[in-house]
Amino acid sequence: MEEVIFYAFAALAIGSALLVVGLKNTARALFLFFIVLFAMAGLFLFALADFVAITQILIYVGGVLILMIFAFMLSNKELLADLQHTSARFLSLPNAQSLLLVLGFLGVMLYGIAEWQENTPYWITENIRRGNIIQPTDNNINQLGVKFMTQYVLPFEVVSIFLLMALIGAAHLSRKEEDR
Amino acid sequence: MITLTHFLVVSACIFCIGLYAVLSKRNAIMILVGIELMINAAVLNLVAFGRYDKVNYGGQVFALFAIVLAAAAVAVGLAIILNVYRKYKTINPDNITDLRD
Amino acid sequence: MRDLLTISPVSMSILVVLLPLLAFVIQAILGKKSTSGMISLIAIAASTLISGGFVFTAVWDNPTISTTYNWFTIGDKTFTIGILLNNLSVLMQFIVCIIALPVHIYSRSYMKGDPGIHRYWMYLSLFCFAMLGLTISKNLFMMYIFWELVGFASYLLIGFWFTKEAAVQANKKAFLVNRIGDLGFLIGIAIIFSTFGTLDLVDLFGTDGFFAQGIDKNTTWMTVAGIAFFLGAMAKSAQFPLHVWLPDAMEGPTSVSSLIHAATMVAAGVFLLSSIFPLFNETVLLIIAIIGTITALSSAFFALGQYDIKKILAFSTISQLGYMMVGVGIGAWDAAMFHLTTHAFFKCLLFLCAGAVIHEMAHLKAHENQEFDPQDLRNMGGLRRYMPKTFTLMAIASLALAGFPLTSGYLSKDAIVITAWEWALHHGGLYLIIPVLLVVVSILTAFYIGRLIFKAFFGEFRLKDLNVTHLHEAPHAMLIPMLLLGIGALFFIFSWNPLSYADAGILQGLSVAYPFAEIHALHVIIPIILTCGSLIAWWIGWRWYSKGSYPLNPHSRWIQASLNQGYLNELYHKTFVESTLALAQISYWFDRYVIDGLVNFSATAVRSLSTFSSWIDRYIVDGFVNTVAGTTYYIGHLLRWIQNGRLQNYLGFAFTVVLIGIIYLIIR
Questions:
Q1: Chain C contact for B96, CB < 8 A?
Q2: Subunit partners of chain C (3 or more CB pairs within 8 A)
Q3: What pLDDT score does C517 carry?
Q4: What distance in Å separates residue A129's CA from the closest CA in chain B?
Q5: Which residues of chain B are within 8 Å of residue C645 when distances are taken between CB atoms?
Q6: With a threshold of 0.80, does the pTM exceed it?
Q7: Dihedral angle of Cα C629, C630, C633, C639, to the nearest 10 degrees
Q8: ipTM of the complex
Q9: In a domain, A171, yes or no
Q10: Which domain holds residue A43?
Q11: Residue C644: its chain B contacts at CB < 8 A?
């Protein structure tokens, strides 16, 4: 049962992603991107990362994707044409060079995964042997809160500052030309 | 039983799809989408590996960091795209060839 | 330099030389603004006064004065310029001055109204400057420079009427013939310099110079040097094979002719030989004597048949120069210089008289609008009645030329002839031909000058249809200088004893010791023979020309030969001119067909070679280069395509490289 759901999520994610890159219509592709992100969030749950899955949905779906649609609508003057223009072709033609490169990467990575399976890293086997792995019953949020405030406080603060800087920068970049 | 390999294969597929989007799409926003896909693949990997490290919780922590950074990147990237659009009246990267020799 | 500032003979002699140069420069600057000739006249008059008053009197019969200044140094050889004042040079300078002065005065009247007269005065001053400089040169090199200047100035003066074709030809001829002599002079200088290392006349020929110390003069080089110098003198002094320029030089103004003939140009050769007399050995001296004799005889013969009054005088000059050369050749260069001096006076006078006659004839021609040659004797006759003073002066000069007693010519000519007899008797044998011929020439001289006088001044005027009342005496401006010269043609200027040349001051001043004995009997016999011969010649001439009983056929071969100057010009034309032309033709042919052919052939060869190499260049070298360049261009184009400015392409390349790297790591 568990595996069936995993495969379903995986198929949903990969299929949606393929449609995202394959569709000619940008607006449709962007909405399909929601599906991909939801499917990914579902996959995170299978890795026992419930807080990350929540965050993914909050940030991506609530923030990033809305932002993207805004930008798309602000920028793309062909949006109306795109929306009205029901193209004869539903999918765009694949770019041969990029496809070749991507398939090459995919092959290399799959080959690497296959090779890697035979010699699992030492720390993983050691943790499995000690039973030091996350269990579905663990309280992840509590643990993450403690870790952020203790062990990872420095990266946490750096990321906070960085986020602030990025937001200020984005605001600066996107303001009107006439304001200068 | 869902092993680490399952996650890795899925993440490899998503990563490659994202890469394809980055390389071939003729729209800056779709390129940004491709980048987000690749980051998501990486996040999936972090989460998958993080399951085997209960002591440090490094996988999930850095997954969160990555998501945050991705959000920041998207914000900045979209701002840049808007500026580019203002300047060139297009967001097709093929038409922006100022880096050409 | 101090000796230049005080009144020393040296500074004065330099002044004598520089005054005509100054006149030349001023005249050249003023150009047409000054046509009177006063500048040149004042300069030469001042030169004459200084030369006579300060130089000649101070140096004559006194020790030699010489001054040397370094001029320039080549290597360790220093060339000097200097002033040499001895009896010979001051005598020569004084003669030049005293002859040039009347010529200048005469020219003012004679050349009046000529359109180019400013040039005339300029050239005349230059001529005087060159000749005066030549006389006091201490150095053979310096002398050579003035020698060339004399030649150049004479070239300008002979061609003065350069619009006349004959004048241009004449000055060209004079210049070319003089070139031959100048070459000889230069070779002589070169030999002297390479042998002795100096060109200084005092160092060479002075009382303790190289030649006084008794070096061997009988070497081949000394003979060659002597002949070379003599060649120079031959051209300047118009000796036999090279005399052809002098009769043609009559194309210049008559006053110029008188100056050239009397004192400046032709005298330079004799003066040169006298200056360097110690150089000559027996062989050279004999050659000089022989050439002089041939010259004297041949030109006396040529003078017999001429109709042009100036040509007769020209040949008589050549003949008298032959006498002087014989004088040098027999060792009696003092007699030669003496004859030069006396000859300068009476020959100058003869020319000026002839000039006066020509002047009047030309006036008559212009007045009557008739076409005839004013210089042709056949158009004259009976002029004695219209120009008595000119006739008198010309008769005195003619007597002097013929060597009649009581004239200066008698003294100097006898000096040469008698010394020649003594010299020949000393040597004996074939040497006797020379003095015998000299006597014959002397009688011939009397005959041809007599012929001139009789034809021009006696009988009736030959152009009957002209109104002869327009003929009258020459103007005073011309007569006065002629009168001055006429006094100089008389004996008392040179010697108080009219019958013996031994008392002549010039001979005593130069005082040459002869190597042969004096024969007293000759001093009586020779003058009697010469005088009687002259009288007989005159009698014949008077009978023939004045009385009109001419016995000879004017078309006989001898007379024609004399008239045509022995066909020498024709001979030269045939031999030298035509052979030169033929050589030029051959050279032209050679140049055209051999050298040009060679050039054309090589040009063709080079052209085909260059075509070939052009092919190689185009298709092999260029092909290679183009291939390389094309390849580079193609690769560059390929790589240029990479740099297309598309971010996605860059990213794709980056990932491609990463992929290749990973694949390399996997399959390694």
A1: yes
A2: A, B
A3: 73
A4: 11
A5: 96-101
A6: no
A7: -120
A8: 0.87
A9: no
A10: 1-91
A11: 97, 100
Which residues of B are less than 8 Å from A128 in CB distance? Answer: 52
The nearest CA of chain A is from the CA of B56 a distance in Å of 8
Q: Two tokens at A72?
A: 């798309």
- Inside any domain, residue A11: yes
Please check whether residue A81 lies inside any domain of the structure.
yes
The residue of C642, C662, C665 whose CB has the most chain A CBs within 10 angstroms, and thus the best one to mutate to test that interface, is C662
For residue range A70-126, list pLDDT tens digits in order. 777 776 565 555 555 555 556 666 778 888 889 999 999 999 888 887 777 888 888
The confidence band for A180, taking pLDDT boundaries of 50, 70 and 90, is very low
The DSSP bridge partners found for residue C454 are none
| CA–CA dist C214, C210 (Å, integer) | 7
Q: Would you say residue A19 lies in a domain?
A: yes
C625–chain B nearest CA distance, Å = 26
H/E segment holding residue B90:
none
Rounded distance between C-alpha atoms, residue C159 and residue C142, angstroms? 26
Domain count, chain A: 1
Tokens 């609508």 belong to residue: A73
| Kind and range of the H or E run holding C69 | strand C65-74
Query: Is there a contact between B41 and B12 (Cβ–Cβ < 8 Å)?
Result: yes
CB within 8 Å of chain A, chain B residues 1-60: 1-2, 4-10, 12-21, 23-25, 27-30, 32-34, 36-37, 40, 43-44, 47-48, 50-57, 59-60
Below-70 pLDDT ranges, chain C? 1-7, 214, 263, 463-471, 498, 502-503, 511, 546-566, 568
Domain boundaries, chain B: 4-90
Nearest to A40 by CA among B24, C613, C33, B48: B48
Question: What pLDDT shows up at residue C458?
Answer: 77
DSSP structure string for C2-51:
HHHHS--HHHHHHHHHHHHHHHHHHHHHHGGG--S-HHHHHHHHHHHHHI
Residues in chain C closer than 8 A to B23 (CB atoms): 648, 651-652, 655
Quick: pLDDT tens for C94-150. Answer: 888 888 888 888 888 888 777 778 888 888 888 888 888 888 888 888 888 888 888
Residue B19 contacts C where some CB pair is shorter than 8 Å: yes
Residue B89 above 70 pLDDT?
A: yes
Across the interface, whether the CB atoms of C647 and B100 are under 8 A apart is answered no
**pLDDT tens-digit profile of C172-212?**
888 888 888 888 888 888 888 888 877 887 777 777 777 77
Q: Closest CB to A56: pick one of B28, B48, B67.
A: B67
CATH 1.10.760.10 fits domain B4-90:
no
Q: Which residues of C539-553 are buried (b: 16+ CB within 10 A; e: fewer)?
A: eebeebbbeeeeeee
Most A-contacting residue of C647, C649, C650, C655 (CB-CB within 10 A), to test interface: C655
Chain A nearest CA to B99, separation (Å)? 21
* CATH number for position A47: 1.20.120.1200
Residue A40's pLDDT band (cuts 50, 70, 90): very high
State residue A9's pLDDT score.
92
**A179 or A3, greater pLDDT:** A3
- What is the residue type of A123? W
pLDDT in tens, C521-531: 777 788 888 88
pLDDT tens-digit map of C639-654 = 777 777 777 888 888 8
